[in-house]
Design brief:
The protein is α+β, with helices and mostly antiparallel strands and about 270 residues long. About 25% of the residues lie in helices and about 40% in strands. Strands 1-2-3-4 form a 4-stranded antiparallel beta sheet. A 4-stranded antiparallel beta sheet has the order 5-6-7-8, covered by helices on one side.
């Protein structure tokens, strides 16, 4: 299961609310002429880090890292920094043909990350490229080699703050679902936040939307109540008459249901079906 938000296509059955992202924290680094933003975000799939690079010309590029991948990247940054420190001054006569001084690769679900410490006429830098195995454009950021330690420390601060309770997050959440009844659409979206997993059921009509949210711990009881209503409404009329025509009376709120049943009988002279 990918924890990432942007760049992961969702099911067409999901409501727009399924793709809402919440920003939890951000750090900004100024390294030479570049600005880097490290944003911790959260959506229904979990938490992830967006790394955005903004060059001196305003050009923007970005990559996305699951928290587990960000921790692996942090460790690679330490190794690359040590290797960079062991290098002597740049020597234009002793540069590899492709400019690569050291390379590593990371994999996470359907994504691959290529880490290349390179050297060119402007200096040494770490290029981090992200690709998606199912296709799509390659995205990359380039961190000046002198800023790798600063970048690593900022990443470490975010990981220390937001991975402490990451184990409590469930992965591989079910995809959203939907159903169409008359002129209404109902969307069922599974998400999670700091309080746990929940289901949001949205009723959507033209120019109208309403929703309820059910915590995971309430799902079995909700299912049982719904099944109980289905069973009682599907009983033959004779067996319903034996119950006294009082409507459904199990569980909390039974008085309200009994009142609805009685009113229906007084108005129509028939029991609920």
């Amino acid at each position: 299961m990918s924890e990432l938000g942007s760049g992961d296509e969702g099911s067409s059955s999901q409501s727009p609310q399924a793709h809402v992202e919440q920003e939890l924290a951000t750090k900004m680094l100024q390294i030479q002429s570049k600005r880097f933003y490290l944003d911790v975000k959260q959506n229904r799939r979990g938490r992830f880090i967006k790394v955005a690079e903004i060059g001196a010309d305003g050009r923007r590029s970005q990559i996305f890292l699951a928290l587990s991948t960000a921790a692996e990247f942090r460790d690679h940054l330490s190794a690359f920094s040590e290797y960079y420190s062991s290098l002597g001054p740049p020597n234009p006569d002793n540069v590899p043909e492709d400019g690569k001084l050291k390379s590593e690769m990371m994999m996470k679900d359907n994504r691959r990350y290529y880490l290349d410490l390179k050297e060119n006429a402007r200096g040494r830098f770490l290029r981090v490229s992200q690709t998606i195995t199912r296709g799509g454009p390659r995205s990359q950021v380039a961190i000046p080699a002198q800023g790798m330690i600063e970048f690593r420390d900022a990443l470490t601060d975010l990981l220390d703050e937001f991975t402490q309770d990451e184990h409590a997050y469930k992965h591989d959440l079910p995809e959203g679902n939907q159903m169409h009844v008359d002129n209404k659409n109902f969307y069922f979206d599974i998400g999670q936040n700091n309080r746990g997993v929940y289901m949001r059921i949205s009723e959507v009509k033209t120019n109208f939307r309403t929703a309820i949210t059910l915590p995971e711990k309430s799902w079995p009881r909700f299912r049982d109540i719904l099944a109980d209503y289905c069973d009682k409404l599907n009983k033959p009329l004779g067996s319903q008459g034996q119950s006294g025509g009082q409507g459904v009376s199990s569980g909390p709120g039974s008085d309200q249901h009994t009142l609805v049943g009685n009113n229906t009988q007084q108005d129509t002279g028939t029991s609920l079906k």
